Structure formats: structure tokens, C-alpha cells
Amino acid sequence: MIQTASDMKTYKKKLKESLDDPFLRTTLDNFGSSYKLSRAKAFENLDFDSLRNQIAEGKDASILCLEELFGTFKTNAEKAGAVVHFARDAEEANSVIASIASENRVRNIVKSKSMTAEETFLNTHLEKKGFKVTETDLGEWIIQLRHEGPSHMVMPAIHLSRRDVAALFSKMTGKEQNPDDISGMVEVARKQLRNEFLEADMGISGANFAIAETGTIGICTNEGNARLTTTLPRVHVVLAGIDKLVPDLGSALRILKVLPKNATGQAITSYVTWITGAAECGDSFDSKKILHIVFLDNGRLAMSKDPVFSEALRCIRCGACANVCPIYRLVGGHKYGHVYIGAVGLILTYFYHGRENARAIVRNCLNCQSCKAVCPAGIDLPNLIKKVYRTVLNDEHRRPVKNVLLSTVLKNRKLFHFLLRQAYLVQQPLTRGGPFIRHLPLFFEREHGFRSLPAIVRRPFRDQWEQWRPHVESPKHRVALFGGCVMDFVYPEQGKALLELLARHNVAVDYPLEQTCCGLPALMSVEETAAKEAAIQNMDALNSEKYDYILTLCASCGSHLKENYPKMFGGESDLRFRVRKFAEKVIDFSSFTVNVLKISPDVFGKSGKKIAYHSPCHLCRGLHVTDEPRKLLCFAGLEYIPSKDEDVCCGFGGSYSVEFPEISAEILRRKLDNVEKTDAEVLVTDCPGCVMQLRGGMDKRGSKIQVRHIAEVIAEEIIK
Amino acid sequence: MQKDVLLNTMKENAESVQSVVSHIKNMEEAFCYVSDLTRRQGGSTVTAPGLNIDERIALQEICGKQGIRFLSAPLRNHLREIHTSLTFADWGIAETGTLVLDSTSEDLRIATMLAESHVAILPAIRIQPDAASLESGLTALQKIFPRYMAFITGPSRTADIERILTIGVHGPRELHILIMEENES
Ligand code: SF4
Ligand code: SF4
């Protein structure tokens, strides 16, 4: 049923299908935008960060002692009349459940939503054994009738239109259904499924919580189908991942406080059901429910002991990491996961459904950090996605040529810079002396033509440094500039603008020439050793003792220096302290100008130029800087015009745009469309990488809107 | 939280998820409410598993006048017939407008799940600010098993077709909360 591509070629073909589906794109895009608003409203007066920390800490504590919690749960639930099972893998879980059904002479089974049952393909197994299984969650029922897997963990049928549903229901009822009468179609489901409930002898549910202290199962639903599933039939079987165990009700309530808000923006689901033991059941011979609770391991216990991947077990299945993902918003769940979808799906697929299913999808991540920012369990999803990719490569003893090259080059700054200079020469016939490469070299495929690629300059920033270097008597601050490859070799004028602004404000600046690539591209290609070597070179070059700040114009470099450096060396005691001190000094342009220089609006003219703003992923989510650039634009007498989805990725993602050009192009198109809807003259952003993508896109579409780095724009507005 | 603040928060949050909230002073008002509601909706049956015998007789009498039939336990015999159910809520949670019902009795479960309209009486003094305040009370109850507890917040809903909110999929289409100011009689 579910077929996930295991090689890039097939995967890309499948992605193309989704990209060509206009309904999917509009519906997911609208969903993404409205989700953002309803989520924000749901958390309005709450401190999300502290709730998130509570969940993460609580989950981490449980993950450490899952077996113990299982023991306690089993004792308590069995005292209350349940039978508790442990299933090592999917097959075992399915056969335990099939035997329970046979032993109790069950024929008809109703099911309320359970992602764990999707994980084990339980329906297929039970149907093969001759049982009739009916999904009762409306969305699950629809996809069951269509023989599909869910395309979202919370909204399984989100990929379908009202027309699809009407066609399906017309066929099933033999009566024409009006696609615009959604209540009417819901009514069809109500009637049909009511019969199924009344005829069923067994109900299967999932669980959102399994509370050890009392042996209680907690289930959240909106439709109320889990209540009927657990009440009407004489047998009730719960199938839950062993990671659903929590010590007590308090822990469950803390998760409950966040789960529905983060899933759909609801304060709470319509129903939350807490079942402790075998309750009264008039249909059973001794008037007691026959209750079985099956816990599925399927790799979870091994994962719980893994120092890196145990974090993924914190997941509470809210689905938010899909909702906000720009790639999910384009291609939908069936192309963005296997059974579990979204960012966490890219990770879990490897563990629950194997390498074959994970191999291609795990590469499809921009590292835009959107998922991480909304995850209520504080899972560093983009990081784990990269780690899964690394694991896949290790398993297969593969090392792509690209990786070998990248790692060799990045480890040797001189070679790297030599090659960049060579690139200038090679591209000459392509640029005709202009700022863009007009014709792509042959090794780029046609799909890369969605944006013009910038040219490498003849004289990089580092070559002009001695000449441009300002001299400041008695400086207020001493800063080291971290250039980053794109500023240095493509846009030195951005650095030049910065130097002028700093000199005017009495800031002494240094540009240590031994600095090299920040190493992020290596980390993104999961070449950790090369990434670490680049980091050490940079820390040696920019001796943080000598400077008050390490300033950068590049949000990606900045967040890599500040966040990833400490993470990469976290376990190495000899470097830990040094890295921390280095990272503390790293600052982005806008924060430095607004918070350190405290630049006064008086130094600016009042040009009132209309400006749209793109908030780089690594600035707003990596460095958590959101107010400063916007404030700075206003200080500078510019008219800042907000546009839709300002904080959604531009689609660049470093090498991502080379690997998945079709998706990158589409994300960029949306971004530029949103900007063009404003009447801005200039699109401003704080990352040379984003400038590259956005400017290339604007050039390609022949737009009049200029794309500039914020430092250039701000420097220009200063009254000379 | 102050009593009236608590009450208002409960009401506001319950109404924001399509619950219908009213105030009553005594059981008789509740019975009339149920009877009128059922007639207005064209229903012909009510059930009320939590009532004592006197209350049941009173309800039966009021409903009888409007030609509405009272369904007696066990409700398994009436799975397809229940129009309105009247129950008591054990607690209210103001923060989310939620009712908490100890639904260990099967009749109570059937009444609240299969009725077209569910009417719940919530004594004002049982309203708590948030779920966390119920933690120890609920845990204590769960230690006396078996136990089936339900948090109910508004009527049954779905958004599974094009994310359009639609009320009444599997559970009641309407949820009415009658806040009773005095102690239960
Ligand atoms: S980092 Fe961005 S692209 Fe990658 S999974 Fe998360 S949201 Fe999607
Ligand atoms: S990983 Fe986080 S955001 Fe994604 S479903 Fe799990 S809890 Fe939700």
C-alpha cells in the first residue's frame, strides 16, 4: 500500500507528481498559514519555552526507565483487570492482537485512530486473518476506503479534496453526494459508522498516554469515536508504543496542556478519555470489559539507550513539525515520510521501517529549523535528520564523491580559496563580465535554471582588506569580522559597507585572513570531521580573547558558530570552555547595531524607501533575532512593509538547492510572489546566502525589486 | 481565582467551543430545560442515568406532559433511541471550558456518547481553574478501579474534510451545560 522511494531517482519522480498537484499545494499552503495563526493564538498567554522544557525533561526522565515504567504499569493495570502484553516488533504485536480476537470469537472490529497500528500495518494483518476491520475516525476511514496511508499524523486525509471524498462516498453509498455539502458527507459517515460500532465485538484504540502509577490509558479525540470504540464492543485492545509511558497523571496533564494547542491550535480536544482497568460492559459474559493493552517496542528500547537518537522518543505526535515545514507544505505527507511523516517521520522511518524507506526521504531537508522551533518536546529535528543520513551512509559504507571532495577541500583553507579563485576564471565565459552566471555549466541540469547564479568576484574581500581596512583611534569596541565564503568571494561590497559604518561609530575591526569556511556545508553533508577541523581553524584565527565581539553578516555562519560549535565539541572537555567563550562573542549585524552600538535614528536621512524583509532561517530561528532588523529598518527612516510568511525559508539551504532544485525553485517562487504583492522597492535580508537565492530569483523573473543585504541598505541611509 | 471570575472563564471557554451554557437554580429547572430542548429538536426520548428515584419521577412527569418518553437502564437496550441525556458533571475546568465526568457506569457512558444532545448539570462549586488542580483528586479516583473518566469539551467535531469544522460526527451534536449556583439538592 504505502510505497516510499528508496532511491533518489524514483523519489524525485514522485516529488514531481506532488509538485504538479495544484489542490495539494494550495490546501497545504493555506493550512500552513492558518495553522501558524491559530497556534499563536492558543499559546497567547502561555510561556511556550517553559512548557517545552517541562515536557522535554519529563520525557527524558521516562525514556531512561521505560522498562521500569512498563513493569509498574503492568502491575497496576492487571490489578484493575487488564491484561498487559509486550511486543518486540510489529509482527509480534499484530499476532498478539489477532490471537486475542480469535480467542474471543471476534468477527467485526472497529478501530479508533492509532499511529502505532499504522506503524505495524495491523489492519492488513487482521484482514488477512479474516476479520472485518473498520476505521472510525473520519479521516482514517476515508483513507482506509481508498487503500492509502495517512498523509498527516493528526489529519490523515488532508491531501484529499471534498470532491475526492464525495466521489468516494457516492460510490460507497450508491447515491450521488454533493461535494459542497460537507455536513451531509459527515452525516453519511455518522450513520454508516454508527452501525459498525453497534455490530462490533472488538474495539482497537491507540493511546496518547499510559500512566504507570495507576495503569491508566489516556486517549484524545475530537470526534468521540475512541469513546465508542472503547465502550460498545465487549473486547477492547489498546496498541501503544512503549514510549507512551509516563510515571503519573501530572506528567500526562503537562503534555495534554500543549498537545492539542500545538497540533491544531485547540485548547483541548473535545474528548479526553482516561481508562483504568476493565470497566463495566453489558455485552460481556461477566459484565466486565475484556481489556488487553499491547505495548510495542519495535526498536524503541534500543533507541532509548542511544545517546543521540533517544531524543526522538520525546515526540508526542502533535504533527507540528510537518505543518510548518516548507517542504511538507509543497509535497505533502505521502512524499515526506513513510508511515510517520514530517520532520520526525524522516527520523523514525529509519528506526521503525528500515533503511530502504529512509534512504531517499532523509535527504530532503533544508535545515531551515522551522520544525525545531515549534516542537513542544524540544527535539533538535534537523540535527537528528542529518544524523540519520550519516547513519544510512555508514550502514551502506558509502561516501558520495561530493562528500570526499568537500571534506578534502574544507580541511585545507589554501586549497579551498585557490579553488574559489579558479572558479572566477572558469566562469568568465559564462558571466560576460556581469554579476550573474548567464549560462549554466553543463554539469548543472536544466532544473537549476530557476535563478541566476551569482559570479565569483575577481578580487574577494580578503584581497582588498588591507586597502579598505579603516583606522580608528581610541575605539569603543574591538570586533573581529567573520566574513563567510559568500560575502568574501561573491559579495565583498556588503563587507565594505559594514566597514564604513563601523569606522563612523568608533569600532575597530579586524579581518584575520586565516579564517575559512565556517564548516556548515560540511556538517550538512554529514562530514563531521571536516566541520570540526574548519571550526578549529576559525577559532584559532579569530582569537576571541582579543575581541569584544565576533561580528558576521551571514546568519548561517553566525548561527553555526554560535550554536553548532558548542554542540560539536560539547563532549570534549579540553575544548568545551574555549568554544563556549568563542560562541558567546558571536553576534549578527542587526543585533550589534541596535543593541551594542545603540545607533541613533538621528544619523539617518528619512528616505522613506519601501522595504520588504526576508527573515533568514538561521537568524530568526538559529540566533533567535527577530526584532532588531525590523527596528533597524525603521530607525533608518525606511518604510518597512510586512509581507506574508516572512520567516519561511527562501529555499536555498546551501547544497539543498543543488540537490532538490525543483523544490527549492517552488519555495523561492512563493517567497518572491509574497514580496511582489507588497509595493516594496527593495527586498532586504541579513544573510548573503539568502541574498544569492533571492537576487537570483528576482533577476530571473525580471523583477524591478532589488535584493540587498541589510548592512548595505543601512549604510547608505546614513547622512554623509 | 475569584468565584465569579472562575464562572465567567468557564462559561466563555465552553461557549468558544460551541457548548451552550445556562444557569439554573434547582433541579426542576434542569428538567424543564431538558424537556423543552427535546421537544424543540423534535426528539421523543430522554434518559438520565445519574438521578435518584425521586428526581427521576419528577423528570418523567415533566417530560410526560410533552409526550417525551423516559428511557430506563440498562441503556444497552436503547442504543439507537436516545435523543437527550441529562447527567451530572463531577467537575468543571474553567481554563478550557471542560466537563469532567466519572463515566465508570456504562449507562452514563452510553448516555453521553450516543445521545443527540447531552445536557450536563455542573454545580458552580465544582469548577476548578485548570486540569492541574484536579491532579490529586483524579489520581485518587483512578486508584479505585476500574475507572473510566471523561473530559468533555464541547460537542463532537471533525475537520477531516478540507479542514472544515463540522459538528457532530460520532458523539452528541449539542452539549448544554447548566451551571447550578447552589449546592446540589
Ligand atoms: S529543518 Fe526545515 S526543511 Fe528540514 S524538516 Fe525541519 S522544517 Fe522541514
Ligand atoms: S517531533 Fe515534535 S513537533 Fe514533530 S510530531 Fe513529535 S512532538 Fe510534534
SSE map:
The complex is a heterodimer of chains A (720) and B (185).
Chain A: H1 8-19, H2 22-42, H3 48-64, H4 66-79, E1 82-87, H5 90-103, E2 108-111, H6 115-120, H7 122-128, E3 132-135, H8 138-145, H9 162-173, H10 182-199, E4 202-205, E5 209-211, E6 216-221, H11 225-231, E7 235-241, E8 245-246, H12 249-264, E9 271-276, E10 290-296, H13 300-304, H14 320-323, H15 328-331, H16 342-358, H17 370-374, H18 381-395, H19 401-411, H20 413-431, E11 436-437, E12 453-454, H21 461-468, E13 477-482, H22 485-489, H23 492-504, E14 507-510, H24 520-524, H25 528-541, E15 549-552, H26 555-568, H27 573-585, E16 586-588, H28 589-596, E17 610-614, H29 617-622, H30 627-635, E18 639-640, H31 656-659, H32 661-676, E19 682-685, H33 688-700, E20 706-709, H34 710-717
Chain B: H1 3-15, E1 19-24, H2 27-40, E2 45-47, H3 53-65, E3 69-70, E4 84-88, E5 91-93, E6 98-102, H4 106-114, E7 117-123, E8 127-128, H5 135-142, E9 147-152, E10 157-158, E11 166-167, E12 174-180
Parallel strand pairs in B: 1-12, 2-3, 2-4, 4-7, 5-8, 7-12
Antiparallel strand pairs in B: 5-6, 6-9, 10-11
Helix pairs in contact in B: 2-3
Short description:
The complex is a heterodimer of chains A (720) and B (185). Chain A has 720 residues and is α/β, with parallel strands linked by helices. In chain A, the strands form five sheets. Chain A has a six-stranded parallel sheet with strand order 1-10-7-4-2-3, sandwiched between helices. A four-stranded mixed sheet of chain A has the order 8-5-6-9. Chain A has a four-stranded parallel sheet with strand order 14-13-15-16, with helices on both faces.
How does this structure look, described?
The complex is a heterodimer of chains A (720) and B (185). Chain A is an alpha/beta fold. Chain A is built from 34 helices and 20 strands. Chain A has a domain of 118 residues: Rossmann fold, CATH 3.40.50.1860. Chain A is 51% helix and 12% strand. In chain A, strands 1-10-7-4-2-3 form a six-stranded parallel β-sheet, with helices on both faces. In chain A, a hairpin with a 4-residue loop joins β5 and β6. The longest helix of chain A has 21 residues. Chain A is elongated and about 95 Å long. Chain A starts with 7 loop residues before the first helix and ends with a helix. Chain B is α/β, with parallel strands linked by helices and 185 residues long. Chain B has one domain: 3-Layer(aba) Sandwich (Rossmann fold), CATH 3.40.50.10420. Chain B has five helices and twelve strands. In chain B, α2 runs parallel beside α3. The chains are: A alpha/beta (720), B alpha/beta (185). The interface between A and B is large, with 69 and 50 residues. β9 of chain A pairs antiparallel with β9 of chain B. The site of one iron/sulfur cluster has 16 residues of chain A, from α14 and α16.
